[in-house]
Automatic annotation (TrEMBL):
Residues 272-466 form the Major facilitator superfamily (MFS) profile domain. It is found in: Cell membrane. One of its GO terms (cellular component) is plasma membrane. Keywords: Membrane, Transmembrane, Transmembrane helix, Transport. This is MFS transporter, UMF1 family. Pfam families: ATG22.
Amino acid sequence: MEGDRMTTQSVADLGPLNRAKEQKAWYWYDWANSAYVTTIATVLFAPYLTSIAEKAACGFVTDEDKGLKCSENLQVLGLGISPGSLVFYVVTVATIFSALVLPIVGAMADRSAKKKNIMAGFAWVGSAAAACMFFVTGDNWQLGVLLLFIANICLGSSLVVYDAILCEIAEPDERDRVSSRGWAMGYLGGGLLLAVNLAVVTFHEELGMSTGMAVRVSMVSAAVWWAAFTFIPYRGIRNREPVAVEREPGGLVRQSFGQLGATLKDMRNYPMTLTFLLGYLFYNDGIQTVIASASIYGEKELGFSTSVLIATILLVQFVAFFGALLFGKLAAKRGSRKVILGGLVVWMVIVTVGYFIPEKNVGMFLGLAVGIGLVLGGTQALSRSFFSQLIPRGREAEYFSLYQACERGTSWLGTLVFGVVHQLTDSYRPAIFALIIFFVVGGALLYRVDPQRGIREAGNQVPQVV
């Protein structure tokens, strides 16, 4: 009997060690997909596809044509589309489509015993689409549109499953730390590859390449990075049987639709979860709009050169690495909700300082970038881990799909406010300051969330610090 107890105890002690190994493997998917997000989706592909579309619409063929303004439209299903607006329309359509599809992906993942396979499958299809962007040349903008659409949908789908796996590999008291380290790895990996690719594009002549070839090579490097590093979580995370999943009639697809319908009806039983989700939609929209508008604000309103803006992008990436880790440590002492609320106060200070920053004051602009980096990764990482505590067991992927779908479905609100205020005032200063409303409303809703009540309502274990 004594020997049996010792054997049982020694086996039980392997639990934390095995979780730690899976967590280390899990971090690498943030590192992997951030290459696509930073190099392709954020920096390089939009201007590149725009130039391809302009060539198709206006016949631009040489580098000397870059300074010319294209006044012709592309013809898409009988509609005239401005080449400069094409990328934004594609992202909008992909966003709306993903808002409809991701909940179904999440419902299917919850019923599957092969979550890591689903995550990696979407990642590899998305990275293949990104790699094929190398072949977007001449005036073939249609191929670029198709590949961007596929890559964005696959990225969102893989992240739904990736986030859900967090609930399987980390205990409630570990999730803030694990989520923060994942975000930190993402910013570090994305920043490192972006720095290399920006160097390739900047010094393309010394490397014997045209600008277009340098961009295409850089996009392939991001695709290979995404695909290759996905093997680490694929090999290091183990699949688990689904738990606490309510049975629905029919096959997997029909069961997934049935589960999704039941969940949407049942969400009113989790008021704290809904309140947090609504608050997150507001403050995350503010965050995304600040990031999306920072470069145009720096260039058009503050008069900074492209080199300053590139340095700022890289500064934000690398500071966000340390910011995510810092927020994880603070959450271990104060609880994630309180730390997120503190981060939202800092965001309010950032948009206020942004309103008053003098033109061409590089020092203040870089200081503002440091502030953004410190709270950027932290607020996002802790939002993910806090939301994971509020999800009923067995519905992790489905709830995270709603988390992503709602985020994507409302991500146009901040840019709409920014654009309308700029149009009314003819200045980017009041436009950037107007975003403070998203942090105020989001913070107010988050303040109303009772974390212990929400965690208990979801049937989960309450962490020691919450």
